[in-house]
Amino acid sequence: MKKLLDKNDKIALQKLSAKYGFKNELQMPKISKVVINCGFNPARDNEAILKEMKLNLAKITGQIPAIRKAKKAIAGFKIRKGDPVGYIVTLRGRRMHDFLEKLIRVALPRIRDFKGLDTKGFDGHGNYTLALREHITFPEIQAEEADKLFGMQISIVTTAGNNEVAKDLLQNLGFVYRG
């Protein structure tokens, strides 16, 4: 864990301050939180699968996920307002850094034919979102024990004001982009 923090504080500070002219540490962009979302629409009625999803997500993140409920009714998906539609985990501090370390060093390299992350995942305000199709890319989950595979959406929220600065910050932390 300490490796990612050291890399962020020292190397990123030097490179980003030289490139963008940051004069002190308070101007430096930082990662403020990581949000992980899992939708469970196909398995909504199966309690065993929902329980397994919750336990697996808790193993991966180190934190118990919260249930997300539908904000409005959508007849085409047979969802009513207030129905549970997914799990969400918001990570900050040490758990966030541990999760990012695991994502960068273990999970992403385990993806078959991984050539880097797509730069289209930036939202214009310096936040990056990526999607994983299978949760078994994380080392805590054994592929043989997983009854149902589920994907997740991972949003990395930074204090950078634009995509270019955020991209450089994440690249200095170890994220690899295509091209």
Keywords:
single chain; 179 residues; alpha+beta; 50s Ribosomal Protein L5, Chain: A; 5-stranded antiparallel β-sheet; 4 helices
What can you see in these coordinates?
Belongs to the universal ribosomal protein uL5 family. GO terms for molecular function: rRNA binding; structural constituent of ribosome; tRNA binding. Residues 24-80 form the Large ribosomal subunit protein uL5 N-terminal domain. The chain is an alpha+beta fold and 179 residues long. The chain has a single domain, classed as 50s Ribosomal Protein L5, Chain: A. The protein is 34% helix and 18% strand. It has a 5-stranded antiparallel beta sheet. The longest helix is centred in the first third of the chain and has 19 residues, at 2-20. The mean pLDDT is 82.
**What is the H/E order?**
HEHEEHEEH
- Tell me the β content: 15-25%
Query: How large is the count of helical segments?
Result: 4
Distance between the termini: 28 Å
What is the number of E strands? Answer: 5
Biggest sheet strand line-up = 2-3-1-5-4
Number of domains: 1
The radius of gyration computed from the alpha-carbon positions, rounded to a whole number of angstroms, is: 18 Å
The share of residues in helices is 25-40%
CATH class: Alpha Beta
Structural class: alpha+beta
Task: List low-pLDDT spans.
Answer: none
Mind telling me the CATH superfamily name? Ribosomal protein L5
CATH topology: 50s Ribosomal Protein L5, Chain: A
Report on the biggest sheet: 5 strands, antiparallel
CATH architecture label name: 2-Layer Sandwich
- Overall shape: globular
| Overall average pLDDT | 82
InterPro entries: Ribosomal_uL5, Ribosomal_uL5_bac-type, Ribosomal_uL5_C, Ribosomal_uL5_dom_sf, Ribosomal_uL5_N
GO cellular component, one term: ribosome
Organism: Candidatus Nealsonbacteria bacterium CG23_combo_of_CG06-09_8_20_14_all_40_13
GO molecular function: rRNA binding; structural constituent of ribosome; tRNA binding
